[in-house]
Here is the input.
Amino acid sequence: MAILSIAFDTAAQQAAVKQEYGIAAPMLVDADKRVSTQYDVLQWAAASGEPGHTFVLVDGAGKIAWIRDYGAPENGGTMYVPVNELTQQIAAALPS
Here is the structure.
């Protein structure tokens, strides 16, 4: 399993953020919003069009196995999700 961050930011902007916060995970550029659209995460986008804090578990066939946007009003508008909570929810969606 791999964890990737996907954002509209340029590669240079992402590199600066990675350096500032010591992020080691890959950060991918989705400037044309193609990936965000394909996985339907823009349904929770802010008024600016920027996606929220959406997590998507994609199976080996490229299909969504689990999706959750914690920043969405219907999910409490959360800006931070404790790692153990996120891990538990993803683990529950994984095949046994």
